[in-house]
Specification:
By secondary structure, the chain is an alpha/beta fold. The chain contains 17 helices and twelve strands. It has a domain of 164 residues: Rossmann fold (3-Layer(aba) Sandwich). Helix 1 links the parallel strand 1 and strand 2. Helix 1 packs parallel to helix 2. The longest helix is centred in the N-terminal third of the chain and has 25 residues.
């Protein structure tokens, strides 16, 4: 029996959708789904959710739930990671402390100061998780959904190069889907391929029945001035390729948008937006808990198109399909650093994962990916060496941070975040660092 282990199963809405997508495949109806979380209440809701979904879909899955990670990993073939270390409280610190210094973020989970500190909180748990996998289920495939995606997969490649891992994100699929809706073309039959870094990949191919769809997209933008007030459209105009993450995310990866009130107003960006989203997620958990307690049916989305169920189905059944995944750059993108983590098309079949080599990105696209990867590289090196200076230097490389704050302010801000996150950070990195020569 194929066993799928959920790490951080208390993310109950996401757990619900992944389980529903898994069990809708008839070949996976008798899975063993093992749920793990560190919070008993959340784990109970996840278990109740899984059992309801299993019953409603008429599947035959075995459901187990445990607070012991090693028990959950025993016999695992696939491990889905979706933890959020520190929860909503840590997320608020990542956003609100920089805001007091004048550094505005929208989401704060991928790069920049929010991504750096979220990564540093997550790395110790990833280290422990992959060590447990090495001991208990060394052949299992780690399917990571936790952000910052690129940094987490990169860190896993450093501490556990023997563990197979891929980062999964739905941004490429939904970008293609939304653009097809925008230009009035069915997604079915559309050919699209993207490459770059997670949340900042580039739609390199976008066609249908041999027709390039980019001219239709440009015509649509010209015909609707409101579209030009989207951050992604501005990136498309300047770089020439459409980026694969929302304007809300994309705005904080650049020095162009959040540094001025005028730009924020023009592009209709909402600083600190993720605080509201996080509070909505807490509300969704409360709603799920109430629904289960009252015996009401939970909402199930149709065709969510998440990649983890597709990957598992392809490997179990041998049905070949192409997804987009985040993997180590081993000859995949020529003009991004070797050893970094990049997002590329990946063929999945019974033999596993086969990333596509895409050659060189357009030089302007690779150039915009550069600061993102510089932040990630320095964060990895900070954790690897225990050098706290590198945390500050990572944030200094971020375009949003260095266009908004002085280096001295960046150092003071990082010191405050180190104190705020405390024991969640690796012990060597809890040192405060003066912003000038000692």
């Amino acid at each position: 029996m194929t066993r799928v282990t959920f790490i951080g199963a208390g993310s109950v809405v996401f757990t619900r959708q992944l389980i529903a997508d898994l069990l809708r495949f008839s070949e996976l109806a008798d899975l063993h789904i093992a749920l793990f979380d560190i919070d008993q209440e959340r784990l109970d809701v996840a278990e109740g959710t899984a059992r309801q979904v299993n019953d409603r879909l008429g599947a035959r899955a075995t459901i187990s739930a445990t607070l012991d990670r090693k028990t959950a990993l025993t016999g695992a073939d696939f491990v889905i990671n979706m933890i959020q270390v520190g929860g909503i409280a840590a997320t608020k610190k990542d956003l609100e402390i920089p805001a007091r210094y004048g550094l505005r973020q929208t989401i704060g989970d991928t790069t920049g100061v929010g991504g750096v500190f979220r990564a540093l909180r997550t790395f110790p748990v990833l280290t422990a998780l992959t060590a447990d996998m090495r001991e208990i289920c060394p052949g299992a495939l780690l399917l990571n959904y936790t952000n910052p995606m690129a940094m987490n997969i990169w860190w896993a490649s450093v501490v556990a190069p023997d563990i197979r891992a891929i980062g999964l994100c739905h941004s490429v699929y939904w970008t293609a889907n939304d653009l097809c809706e925008l230009i009035g073309v069915p997604l079915e039959g559309t050919h699209y391929r993207a490459a770059g870094v997670n949340h900042q990949s580039w739609l390199l191919e976008f066609s249908r029945e041999g027709q390039d769809l980019y001219p239709l997209l440009r015509e649509k933008i010209v015909s609707d001035p409101e579209l030009e007030r989207r951050v992604r459209v501005e990136i498309f105009r300047r770089i020439g390729y459409y980026p694969t993450e929302t304007s809300e995310h994309s705005a904080e990866y650049l020095p162009w948008i959040l540094r001025s009130d005028e730009q924020i107003a023009h592009f209709r960006v909402e600083p600190l937006q993720y605080i509201g989203i996080s509070e909505e997620n807490v509300g969704e958990f409360d709603s799920a808990r109430s629904a289960l307690a009252e015996g009401r049916e939970l909402h199930l989305e149709e065709g969510a198109a998440e990649y983890a169920p597709q990957v598992i189905h392809s490997i179990v059944t041998g049905q070949e399909r192409v997804i987009h995944g985040n993997v180590v750059n081993a000859g995949l993108i020529d003009n991004l650093p070797a050893g970094s983590v990049v997002e590329v098309p990946v063929t999945v079949d019974a033999d596993g994962l086969h990333p596509h080599a895409v050659g060189a990105l357009p030089p302007q696209a690779a150039a915009l990916n550069g600061p993102y990867l510089a932040v990630a590289a320095l964060t990895i090196e900070a954790a690897r060496t225990g050098n706290p200076d590198l945390i500050r230097q990572a944030v200094l490389m971020d375009g949003n941070a260095n266009s908004s704050l002085t280096p001295e302010a960046i150092w003071r801000m990082c010191d405050e975040l180190v104190l705020a996150h405390g024991d969640l950070l690796p012990e060597p990195l809890r040192e405060l660092v003066p912003g000038s020569f000692r």
